[in-house]
């Protein structure tokens, strides 16, 4: 499960009103390199909940990866930034697309219900009595 | 020719034929699933027979499963079982798009399928930067075509974990895994916040919901105000007569063999959509003329079915395929007969298209 996916998931437990964002617990995760596409990031950024993304990186013990405040568009999409090691766009690209959580869980912030992540797939299926 | 040479020639030809039959002819598309790779989803080999028997008895009387609350709750689990049983067979014998399409003269089934899928993207006005939801995405055939055609991002949801794995593998192979994501979940209770998608579509998938209102309501919730939703619905048409026992048998056959808790009527769809708050922008049965028949592909597939049936039985004998596969394959063949009849008599259509809009003024409701 990539953090891009985590960013769009919410708890669907009946009766829960603030089921977003899900808390991330990862017992096994890895990184896989992917080509950076600035246009893709540009299209994606408006849809990303920054605080949820930062929280997810903190949960993976990467407190230095992203700043608390979302950097400005000028900074992210500055000319040539994609080629600069440690630039904002490269960090965002890495966080969203290159981290893969293989084993772990997503926890509903309100009910505590745990959705397992197995072999990279988060299973958001509720049991019959939870729907 | 000497007897020994003849025997050797016969043996070589025989082996060649078996190889051709099983390995070469056994794939739907050049890089598709192969007969020797058939798995029953996440069901282990020893459980296949049981799971199939359970499935068959549950869907014996489809309309009753929809009406009793206790049964309706079990439907998702049985739909999941169904797709464990059939996903590999579908990929092997049909392709990566688990739906029908109007046939296009002079074009392959793959092309006809792609055109039918791209139509969805066009109806939605899908563009790069849009995030679309595929409700009931299977192994992602439509998702990939729609993402490639429109440049949009697509998120698919399917109840079947095995399909999630297959879809992701296909997305990676197609180089689309940055723009196509798949989530394992129930479309009756989707794990997405309100108003998180620019558009949504479902291709022949909502028929698995015991109540159409429930899936439509969820789609409505996760769509942004002003967002469009396209659905290709499996429905009975105005030609269907409940008093005609042949019609009833045909529709029951379709429901039982496709994990459907009860087909809706064509004329109900619009009112159900409005019930949950949608505006109906457009409605059209895409199977009607001038469209060419969608069921000819099923009929043409008869020879392939016989061959596949033989292959499956041989593989079961050789203990390569788990016990129960042959029965599942038989069930699908019978279902194909019912579907063909439904198409020929015009009492059934798998492609009643509705284009729906969530009003731009729709207020965000607290959950």
TrEMBL record, chain A:
One of its GO terms (molecular function) is protein heterodimerization activity. It holds the Pfam family Trm112p. GO terms for biological process: rRNA (guanine-N7)-methylation; tRNA methylation. Belongs to the TRM112 family. Interacts with TRM9. This is Multifunctional methyltransferase subunit TRM112-like protein. The lineage of its organism: Eukaryota, Viridiplantae, Streptophyta, Embryophyta, Tracheophyta.
From TrEMBL, chain B:
Keywords: Lipid biosynthesis, Lipid metabolism, Membrane, Methyltransferase, S-adenosyl-L-methionine, Steroid biosynthesis, Steroid metabolism, Sterol biosynthesis, Sterol metabolism, Transferase, Transmembrane, Transmembrane helix. It catalyses: 24-methylidenelophenol + S-adenosyl-L-methionine = (Z)-24-ethylidenelophenol + S-adenosyl-L-homocysteine + H(+). Residues 82-359 form the SAM-dependent methyltransferase Erg6/SMT-type domain. It is an enzyme of class 2 (transferase). The chain crosses the membrane at residues 6-30. GO terms for molecular function: 24-methylenesterol C-methyltransferase activity. Its EC number is 2.1.1.-. Pathway: Steroid biosynthesis; sterol biosynthesis. GO terms for biological process: methylation; sterol biosynthetic process. CDD domains: AdoMet_MTases. InterPro entries: Methyltransf_11, MeTrfase_SMT, SAM-dependent_MTases_sf, Sterol_MeTrfase_C. It comes from the Eukaryota. Catalyzes the methyl transfer from S-adenosyl-methionine to the methylene group of 24-methylene lophenol to form 24-ethylidene lophenol. PANTHER family: 24-METHYLENESTEROL C-METHYLTRANSFERASE 2, PTHR44742. Belongs to the class I-like SAM-binding methyltransferase superfamily. Erg6/SMT family. This is Methyltransferase. It comes from Eleusine coracana subsp. coracana.
């Amino acid at each position: 499960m990539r953090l891009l996916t985590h960013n769009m998931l919410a708890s669907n437990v009946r009766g829960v009103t603030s089921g977003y964002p899900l808390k991330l617990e990862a017992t096994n995760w890895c990184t896989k390199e992917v080509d950076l596409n600035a246009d893709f990031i540009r299209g994606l950024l408006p849809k990303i909940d920054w605080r949820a993304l930062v929280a997810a990186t903190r949960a993976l013990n990467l407190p230095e990866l992203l700043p608390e405040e979302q950097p400005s568009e000028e900074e992210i999409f500055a000319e040539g930034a994609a080629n600069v090691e440690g630039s904002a766009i490269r960090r965002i690209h890495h966080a969203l697309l290159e981290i893969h959580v293989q084993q772990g869980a997503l926890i509903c912030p309100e009910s505590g219900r745990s959705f397992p992540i197995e072999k990279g797939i988060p299973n958001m299926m509720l049991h019959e009595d939870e729907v | 020719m000497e007897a020994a040479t003849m025997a050797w020639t016969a043996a070589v030809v025989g082996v060649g034929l078996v190889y051709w039959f099983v390995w070469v002819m056994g794939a739907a598309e050049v890089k598709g699933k192969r007969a020797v790779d058939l798995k029953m989803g996440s069901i282990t080999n020893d459980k296949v027979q049981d799971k199939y028997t359970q499935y068959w008895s549950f869907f014996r009387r489809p309309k009753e499963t929809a009406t009793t609350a206790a049964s309706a709750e079990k439907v998702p689990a049985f739909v999941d079982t169904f797709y464990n049983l059939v996903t590999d067979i579908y990929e092997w014998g049909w392709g990566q798009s688990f739906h029908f399409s109007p046939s296009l003269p002079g074009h392959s089934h793959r092309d006809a399928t792609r055109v039918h899928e791209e139509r969805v993207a066009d109806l939605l006005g899908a563009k790069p930067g849009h995030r679309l939801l595929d409700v009931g995405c299977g192994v992602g055939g439509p998702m990939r075509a729609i993402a490639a055609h429109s440049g949009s991002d697509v998120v698919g949801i399917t109840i079947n974990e095995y399909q999630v794995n297959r879809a992701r593998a296909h997305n990676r192979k197609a180089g689309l895994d940055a723009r196509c994501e798949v989530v394992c979940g129930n479309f009756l209770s989707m794990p997405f916040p309100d108003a998180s998608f620019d558009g949504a579509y479902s291709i022949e998938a909502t028929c698995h919901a015991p109540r159409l209102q429930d899936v439509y309501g969820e789609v409505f919730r996760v769509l942004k105000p002003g967002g469009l939703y396209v659905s290709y619905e499996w429905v009975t048409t105005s030609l269907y007569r409940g008093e005609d026992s042949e019609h009833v048998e045909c529709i029951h056959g379709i429901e039982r063999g496709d994990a459907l808790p009860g087909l809706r009527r064509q004329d109900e769809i619009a009112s159900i959509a409005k019930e949950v708050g949608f505006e109906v922008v457009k409605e059209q049965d895409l199977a009607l003329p001038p469209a060419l028949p969608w069921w000819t592909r099923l009929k043409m597939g008869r020879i392939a079915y016989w061959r596949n049936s033989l292959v499956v039985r041989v593989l079961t004998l050789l203990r390569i395929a788990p016990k129960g596969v042959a029965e599942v394959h038989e069930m699908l063949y019978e279902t194909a007969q019912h579907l063909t009849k439904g198409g020929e008599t015009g009492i059934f259509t798998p492609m009643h298209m509705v284009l729906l809009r969530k009003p731009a003024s729709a207020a965000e409701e607290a959950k």
